[in-house]
Write a structure and sequence with these properties.
InterPro entries: Myb_DNA-bind_5. Self-associates forming complexes of several hundred monomers. By secondary structure, the protein is mainly alpha-helical. It contains five helices and no strands. α1 packs across α3.
């Protein structure tokens, strides 16, 4: 039987901002579209470095490279969804009440 992992705390606003700032630092390797073995090794090494820097800056809770990677991909995915929804609304016919925009500052930094 596998032991149950304890759930970590949610990412704070400060942690999300720090993560995005560090991702920008390593963007050339992290955002690379190539998926061969060498590129994947470089990406993993970049996330290791990123995790060390992240945990030294944000000492609230330890975050593994896997956790940081999934959080960054989730932020990107949510940002794309918000952008897509805004574009779909702009292409609409105009019937009904106006839609309020609620994109956060985190998503606008992507």
């Amino acid at each position: 039987m596998t032991p149950i992992k304890k759930r970590a705390t949610n990412f704070s606003y400060k942690e999300e901002k720090t993560l995005l700032a560090l991702v920008k630092k390593y963007a050339s390797t992290i955002e690379c579209k190539r998926t061969d073995i060498n590129s994947n090794k470089l990406k993993a090494a970049s996330y290791e470095k990123l995790a060390i820097e992240f945990n030294s800056v944000c000492g609230e809770c330890y975050r593994s490279p896997k956790t940081l990677r999934s959080k960054y991909e989730n932020i990107k995915k949510c940002g794309k969804k918000v952008f897509s929804d805004e574009r779909a609304y702009l292409r609409g016919t105009g019937g009904g009440p106006a839609k309020s925009t609620s994109s956060s500052e985190i998503q606008s930094e992507l």
